[in-house]
Design goal:
The chain is an alpha+beta fold. The chain has one domain (about 1-240). The chain has helices spanning about 1-25, 30-40, 195-205, 210-215, 215-220, 225-240; strands at about 50, 75-80, 80-85, 90, 95-105, 110, 120-125, 125-130, 140-150, 155-160, 160-170, 170-180, 180-185, 190-195. The chain has an eight-stranded antiparallel sheet. Strands 1-6-5-4 form a four-stranded antiparallel sheet, with no helix packed on it. Strands 11-12 form a two-stranded antiparallel ribbon. The longest helix is centred in the first third of the chain and has 22 residues, at about 1-25. The termini are far apart.
Protein backbone atom coordinates (compact mmCIF):
# COMPACT_ATOMS: atom_id res chain seq x y z
CA UNK A 1 0.00 0.00 0.00
CA UNK A 2 2.80 2.47 0.92
CA UNK A 3 4.64 1.68 -2.33
CA UNK A 4 1.48 2.49 -4.31
CA UNK A 5 1.13 5.85 -2.57
CA UNK A 6 4.79 6.75 -3.27
CA UNK A 7 4.28 5.85 -6.94
CA UNK A 8 1.31 8.22 -7.15
CA UNK A 9 3.20 11.29 -5.84
CA UNK A 10 5.26 11.95 -9.03
CA UNK A 11 2.11 11.41 -11.10
CA UNK A 12 0.16 14.03 -9.10
CA UNK A 13 3.04 16.51 -9.40
CA UNK A 14 3.00 16.00 -13.17
CA UNK A 15 -0.78 16.23 -13.54
CA UNK A 16 -1.46 19.43 -11.58
CA UNK A 17 0.25 21.97 -13.90
CA UNK A 18 -1.27 20.28 -16.96
CA UNK A 19 -4.77 20.40 -15.47
CA UNK A 20 -4.23 24.06 -14.60
CA UNK A 21 -3.40 24.90 -18.23
CA UNK A 22 -6.39 22.92 -19.52
CA UNK A 23 -8.78 24.82 -17.24
CA UNK A 24 -8.17 28.01 -19.20
CA UNK A 25 -8.71 26.31 -22.56
CA UNK A 26 -11.84 24.17 -22.29
CA UNK A 27 -14.80 23.36 -20.10
CA UNK A 28 -14.60 20.68 -17.46
CA UNK A 29 -17.13 19.32 -15.05
CA UNK A 30 -18.41 21.05 -11.95
CA UNK A 31 -16.23 19.10 -9.53
CA UNK A 32 -13.03 19.93 -11.39
CA UNK A 33 -13.69 23.68 -11.36
CA UNK A 34 -14.50 23.69 -7.65
CA UNK A 35 -11.27 21.73 -7.04
CA UNK A 36 -9.28 24.12 -9.21
CA UNK A 37 -10.67 27.22 -7.46
CA UNK A 38 -9.84 25.79 -4.05
CA UNK A 39 -6.26 24.99 -5.10
CA UNK A 40 -5.57 28.36 -6.74
CA UNK A 41 -7.36 30.38 -4.07
CA UNK A 42 -10.28 32.73 -4.61
CA UNK A 43 -8.30 35.97 -4.37
CA UNK A 44 -6.05 34.88 -7.25
CA UNK A 45 -8.90 34.27 -9.70
CA UNK A 46 -9.51 36.82 -12.47
CA UNK A 47 -13.18 37.09 -11.57
CA UNK A 48 -12.30 38.80 -8.27
CA UNK A 49 -11.52 42.09 -9.98
CA UNK A 50 -14.09 44.87 -10.14
CA UNK A 51 -15.30 48.11 -8.64
CA UNK A 52 -16.82 48.15 -5.16
CA UNK A 53 -20.62 48.12 -5.04
CA UNK A 54 -22.00 51.04 -3.00
CA UNK A 55 -25.80 51.04 -2.49
CA UNK A 56 -27.41 54.34 -3.47
CA UNK A 57 -30.70 53.88 -1.63
CA UNK A 58 -31.60 53.28 2.02
CA UNK A 59 -34.24 50.57 2.26
CA UNK A 60 -35.93 48.77 5.12
CA UNK A 61 -35.38 45.57 3.16
CA UNK A 62 -31.90 45.92 1.71
CA UNK A 63 -32.09 43.00 -0.70
CA UNK A 64 -35.29 44.02 -2.46
CA UNK A 65 -33.44 45.33 -5.51
CA UNK A 66 -31.99 41.88 -6.17
CA UNK A 67 -33.35 38.83 -7.98
CA UNK A 68 -35.12 36.51 -5.52
CA UNK A 69 -33.76 38.44 -2.54
CA UNK A 70 -30.21 37.56 -3.56
CA UNK A 71 -29.84 34.36 -1.54
CA UNK A 72 -28.59 31.55 -3.80
CA UNK A 73 -27.06 28.26 -2.69
CA UNK A 74 -26.12 27.02 -6.18
CA UNK A 75 -24.66 29.34 -8.79
CA UNK A 76 -22.81 28.99 -12.07
CA UNK A 77 -21.27 31.81 -14.07
CA UNK A 78 -19.25 31.84 -17.29
CA UNK A 79 -16.98 34.87 -16.93
CA UNK A 80 -14.42 35.81 -19.56
CA UNK A 81 -14.64 32.27 -20.98
CA UNK A 82 -14.07 30.59 -17.61
CA UNK A 83 -16.67 28.63 -15.61
CA UNK A 84 -17.11 29.21 -11.87
CA UNK A 85 -19.45 27.34 -9.54
CA UNK A 86 -21.10 28.08 -6.20
CA UNK A 87 -19.83 31.63 -5.77
CA UNK A 88 -21.77 34.20 -3.74
CA UNK A 89 -23.52 36.11 -6.53
CA UNK A 90 -26.39 38.60 -6.69
CA UNK A 91 -28.23 39.93 -9.72
CA UNK A 92 -29.08 43.61 -9.20
CA UNK A 93 -32.37 44.13 -11.08
CA UNK A 94 -32.40 47.87 -10.51
CA UNK A 95 -29.10 48.48 -12.32
CA UNK A 96 -28.95 45.30 -14.43
CA UNK A 97 -25.60 44.23 -13.05
CA UNK A 98 -24.10 41.18 -11.34
CA UNK A 99 -22.39 41.41 -7.97
CA UNK A 100 -19.84 39.05 -6.45
CA UNK A 101 -19.04 38.78 -2.75
CA UNK A 102 -15.34 39.21 -2.08
CA UNK A 103 -13.78 38.20 1.21
CA UNK A 104 -10.17 39.03 2.00
CA UNK A 105 -8.16 39.58 5.14
CA UNK A 106 -8.55 43.34 4.87
CA UNK A 107 -12.01 43.87 3.31
CA UNK A 108 -15.28 42.04 2.85
CA UNK A 109 -17.97 43.26 0.49
CA UNK A 110 -19.59 43.16 -2.93
CA UNK A 111 -17.91 44.04 -6.21
CA UNK A 112 -19.53 44.74 -9.60
CA UNK A 113 -18.53 42.34 -12.37
CA UNK A 114 -17.96 43.53 -15.94
CA UNK A 115 -21.24 42.71 -17.73
CA UNK A 116 -19.61 42.33 -21.15
CA UNK A 117 -17.46 39.49 -19.77
CA UNK A 118 -20.45 37.49 -18.50
CA UNK A 119 -21.69 35.01 -21.07
CA UNK A 120 -24.12 33.03 -18.94
CA UNK A 121 -25.36 33.05 -15.38
CA UNK A 122 -27.42 30.59 -13.35
CA UNK A 123 -28.79 31.01 -9.83
CA UNK A 124 -30.61 28.08 -8.23
CA UNK A 125 -31.25 26.57 -11.67
CA UNK A 126 -32.67 29.84 -13.10
CA UNK A 127 -30.55 30.61 -16.21
CA UNK A 128 -29.72 34.05 -17.61
CA UNK A 129 -27.73 35.08 -20.65
CA UNK A 130 -26.21 38.41 -21.62
CA UNK A 131 -27.59 39.67 -24.95
CA UNK A 132 -26.35 42.70 -26.87
CA UNK A 133 -25.64 44.16 -30.33
CA UNK A 134 -29.29 44.25 -31.35
CA UNK A 135 -30.15 45.76 -34.74
CA UNK A 136 -33.39 47.08 -33.21
CA UNK A 137 -32.47 50.06 -31.02
CA UNK A 138 -35.65 49.58 -28.96
CA UNK A 139 -34.29 46.33 -27.52
CA UNK A 140 -32.07 46.92 -24.52
CA UNK A 141 -28.80 45.08 -24.08
CA UNK A 142 -28.43 43.27 -20.78
CA UNK A 143 -29.24 40.09 -18.89
CA UNK A 144 -32.26 38.09 -20.00
CA UNK A 145 -33.85 35.12 -18.27
CA UNK A 146 -33.94 32.04 -20.50
CA UNK A 147 -37.61 31.08 -20.40
CA UNK A 148 -37.62 28.60 -23.30
CA UNK A 149 -34.45 28.07 -25.33
CA UNK A 150 -34.47 24.40 -26.36
CA UNK A 151 -36.26 24.80 -29.69
CA UNK A 152 -35.75 26.80 -32.86
CA UNK A 153 -37.91 29.62 -31.48
CA UNK A 154 -36.47 30.95 -28.24
CA UNK A 155 -38.09 33.07 -25.54
CA UNK A 156 -36.29 35.44 -23.18
CA UNK A 157 -37.63 37.62 -20.37
CA UNK A 158 -36.15 40.94 -19.22
CA UNK A 159 -36.65 41.38 -15.49
CA UNK A 160 -36.22 44.73 -13.77
CA UNK A 161 -37.14 46.73 -10.69
CA UNK A 162 -38.33 50.29 -10.13
CA UNK A 163 -37.55 52.41 -7.07
CA UNK A 164 -40.00 54.60 -5.17
CA UNK A 165 -39.22 57.10 -2.42
CA UNK A 166 -41.18 57.08 0.83
CA UNK A 167 -40.97 59.25 3.95
CA UNK A 168 -41.65 57.48 7.24
CA UNK A 169 -41.28 59.30 10.56
CA UNK A 170 -39.51 62.13 8.73
CA UNK A 171 -36.96 59.70 7.36
CA UNK A 172 -36.54 58.92 3.67
CA UNK A 173 -36.66 55.29 2.56
CA UNK A 174 -36.89 53.60 -0.80
CA UNK A 175 -39.02 50.69 -1.91
CA UNK A 176 -38.30 48.40 -4.87
CA UNK A 177 -41.14 47.04 -6.96
CA UNK A 178 -41.10 44.60 -9.87
CA UNK A 179 -41.46 46.34 -13.22
CA UNK A 180 -43.44 44.84 -16.07
CA UNK A 181 -41.34 42.21 -17.82
CA UNK A 182 -40.26 42.56 -21.43
CA UNK A 183 -40.38 39.44 -23.59
CA UNK A 184 -38.04 38.74 -26.47
CA UNK A 185 -38.50 36.20 -29.25
CA UNK A 186 -35.53 34.88 -31.19
CA UNK A 187 -36.27 33.22 -34.52
CA UNK A 188 -33.76 32.69 -37.35
CA UNK A 189 -31.25 34.95 -35.57
CA UNK A 190 -33.81 37.80 -35.47
CA UNK A 191 -34.93 39.28 -32.16
CA UNK A 192 -38.41 40.77 -31.69
CA UNK A 193 -40.09 42.28 -28.62
CA UNK A 194 -43.57 40.98 -27.86
CA UNK A 195 -46.06 42.52 -25.44
CA UNK A 196 -49.15 40.42 -25.99
CA UNK A 197 -50.57 37.42 -27.84
CA UNK A 198 -51.32 39.60 -30.90
CA UNK A 199 -47.59 40.25 -31.35
CA UNK A 200 -46.96 36.51 -31.33
CA UNK A 201 -49.67 35.94 -33.94
CA UNK A 202 -48.20 38.72 -36.10
CA UNK A 203 -44.86 36.87 -36.08
CA UNK A 204 -46.42 33.47 -36.83
CA UNK A 205 -49.69 34.14 -38.73
CA UNK A 206 -49.76 30.60 -40.15
CA UNK A 207 -50.40 29.24 -36.66
CA UNK A 208 -52.97 31.85 -35.56
CA UNK A 209 -55.69 29.29 -34.83
CA UNK A 210 -53.40 27.01 -32.79
CA UNK A 211 -52.03 29.96 -30.79
CA UNK A 212 -55.51 31.24 -29.94
CA UNK A 213 -56.78 27.74 -29.08
CA UNK A 214 -53.92 27.37 -26.60
CA UNK A 215 -54.35 30.87 -25.15
CA UNK A 216 -56.20 31.61 -21.90
CA UNK A 217 -56.65 35.26 -20.98
CA UNK A 218 -56.90 34.67 -17.22
CA UNK A 219 -53.86 32.40 -17.17
CA UNK A 220 -51.90 34.92 -19.24
CA UNK A 221 -52.78 37.77 -16.91
CA UNK A 222 -51.79 35.73 -13.85
CA UNK A 223 -48.43 34.66 -15.28
CA UNK A 224 -47.31 36.13 -18.60
CA UNK A 225 -44.02 34.24 -18.54
CA UNK A 226 -45.62 30.79 -18.32
CA UNK A 227 -48.29 31.73 -20.86
CA UNK A 228 -45.75 32.86 -23.47
CA UNK A 229 -43.61 29.82 -22.67
CA UNK A 230 -46.49 27.44 -23.40
CA UNK A 231 -47.17 29.22 -26.70
CA UNK A 232 -43.52 29.10 -27.78
CA UNK A 233 -43.18 25.42 -26.89
CA UNK A 234 -46.36 24.73 -28.89
CA UNK A 235 -44.93 26.63 -31.89
CA UNK A 236 -41.72 24.64 -31.73
CA UNK A 237 -43.75 21.46 -31.93
CA UNK A 238 -45.75 22.76 -34.90
CA UNK A 239 -42.76 23.83 -37.00
CA UNK A 240 -40.88 20.54 -36.69
Amino acid sequence: MKKSIFKLIPLLIFLYPNLYRLSAQKKADNNYYIWHDNIVGERNLDIYKGKVFIPKFVSKEKERQFFQQGNHSKTHIVYDGQSYYNLAIRYDLLNDQVLLYCKTGLWNGWIVLASDKIERLSMDAVPFTHLNDFENSQIKSGFYKEVSTDGKIKLYEKLSKAVRKRIIDRKTYYEFKDSKSLFLIKNNEDYTLIENIRDLIFLFPTFKKQILDNYNKKVHKANESNSFKNSVEQLNQLIK
